[in-house]
Amino acid sequence: MTAPWWREAVTYEAYVRSFADGDGDGLGDLPGLRGRLPYLASLGVDALWITPFYPSPDHDAGYDVTDHRDVDPRLGTLADADGVIADAHRLGLRVVVDLVLNHVSSAHPWFVAARAAGPGAPERARFHVRPGRGPDGATPPTNWPSIFGGPAWTPFGDGEWYLHLFDREQPDLRHEHPEVAADALATLRFWLDRGVDGVRFDAAGSLSKDPAYPDLPDGWRPGDPAPYSDRDEVHEIYRRWARVLASYPGDRLGVAETWGGPDVLAPYLRPDELGQAFAMDPLYWPLRAQPWREGVDALLAATGRHGRLPTWVHGSHDVRRAADRWGPDGARAVLLLMLALPGAVYLYAGDELGLPEVALADGEIRDPVFRRSGGADRGRDGARVPLPWTDGPAPYGFGPDGATPWLPQPAGWGARSVARQSDDPASPLAVTRAALALRGAWWRGRPEELTWRDAPADCLAFRRGQHGPTCLVNFGDAPVDWRPYGRRLLLASAPATEEKLPARATAWLA
């Protein structure tokens, strides 16, 4: 039996607003993305994940949606979406769209009606609405915090409060409500009918909340179990959606945006649920051998219980740039490590260029996290600065000359551009292209069990099965001899000699 296309796929996340601007208004859009699809095909990825492009007031860069079955006029049209899908397929790329079904925009017709209705009105039953505490209802119903900072409840002004696990402009939906459940199914079918190959479910664990709405215990910290995350009831929703995915031809993918360790993500991968669930913990693993070896083993064991493989996330629009988290050398080393491991890999746009996190001034930040945290959290915009495609001048090929991007690009951004790196065989782009080209021949389809090999301190070495190439990772501060692990150096994430692999580098050896 042939494995589904997504089992070991490399998927590229195109953050639409920062990828390519086709009309010069400063905002990346679907026509811009469509024009850059040949670049993705030449890069060697298998699939494209497109972040939300639906109508939105843009309080959270499109993750506050007013209509899940249309396209924001600033970003294009449904015909443009169809064109992206068709052109991607012609180029051999699969397409994954991002569905935001945990919440809607506060400008969504449902919430506009809920706000206008009085306490206890049926229009409010689609949302998590509770009376405030205290004699005048002026205290939030629970002590739940917003993930973006501040409380997770906002008052209607009439004694009732609504829940928003993210920004106050993103009220959470009640998926127990039949109209909400039916609308989600209609949205899923709408995009599958248009030919998408998969769906990323945003905020996957948050769709079900404890109906008793209990307070969080004293001493609770983010990451601890919570009554609004990864509850058993959420899996019935995904089983329902998985049946829809399975009713379409072509191994349509459902991928959960999960945050947590192996025991959190594994239940989403049961045979009657989804094909992938994000492994986010590795984003924060330090460059040391023991955490990676133990973490890889734990993820392989947890996902393997359900016949699945890990979904390695190298970066995303929600975290600092890989070059900032691990350092430029470390980011390339981790990418080659992930590409050699069993499972799928998600690569964030710009990380193939080694783009750094950009320090933005307070007045330039658009992320609601910055506002809701009172400036304590700088937010995620430093990883969302529009891509540089050409040497210059600004906006460096992101849009027409003279256009002003929605987030400012730093001076000299063109030195990191696709055009500049395409001619440099030692560039991050060249290393990424080479790794993706070699992965199919040397790693993809190999046995899914790892055979760990003895390695020096601060190093990892493994094979896929008993034979085949070796992946050697040097997390240490000094070069190591690679020759005990292979006679031929296939690829290294940093320049290696005939004997030595440098510090913070990965080599593939045959």
What does this entry look like structurally?
With 510 residues, this protein is α/β, with parallel strands linked by helices. The protein folds into three domains: 10-102 and 177-422, TIM Barrel (Alpha-Beta Barrel), CATH 3.20.20; 109-163, Oligo-1,6-glucosidase, domain 2 (Alpha-Beta Complex); 449-509, Immunoglobulin-like, CATH 2.60.40. Helices cover 25% and strands 14% of the residues. The chain has 14 helices and 18 strands. The protein has helices at 16-19, 30-35, 37-43, 78-90, 109-116, 178-193, 234-246, 262-265, 289-304, 322-325, 328-340, 368-372, 418-422, 428-442, and strands at 10-14, 47-50, 94-99, 129-131, 153-155, 160-163, 198-201, 253-256, 276-279, 311-313, 344-348, 450-452, 459-464, 470-474, 480-481, 489-492, 500-501, 505-509. Strands 1-2-3-7-8-9-10-11 form an eight-stranded parallel barrel, surrounded by four helices. The chain has a five-stranded antiparallel sheet with strand order 12-13-14-18-16. Strand 9, helix 9 (289-304) and strand 10 form a beta-alpha-beta unit. Helix 6 packs parallel to helix 7 (234-246) and helix 11 (328-340) runs parallel beside helix 14 (428-442). The two termini are 28 Å apart.
* Global outline: globular
The overall pLDDT, averaged over residues, is 97
Q: Helix count?
A: 14
Q: Structural class of the secondary elements?
A: alpha/beta
Gap from first CA to last CA: 28 Å
Topology, number of strands: 18
CATH fold descriptor of the largest domain: TIM Barrel
> What is the fourth-level CATH superfamily of the largest domain?
Glycosidases
Q: Enumerate the strands of the largest sheet in spatial order, edge to edge or round the barrel.
A: 1-2-3-7-8-9-10-11
How many whole angstroms does the radius of gyration measure?
23 Å
Low-pLDDT regions? none
Give the CATH architecture of the largest domain: Alpha-Beta Barrel
Helix content percent band: 25-40%
Q: Beta-strand level of the residues, as a percent range?
A: 5-15%
Quick one: CATH class of the largest domain? Alpha Beta
Question: Can you summarize the main beta sheet?
Answer: 8 strands, parallel, barrel
Count the domains.
3
Domain Glycosyl hydrolase family 13 catalytic: 13-384
Organism: Micromonospora globbae
Pfam families: Alpha-amylase
GO molecular function, one term: hydrolase activity
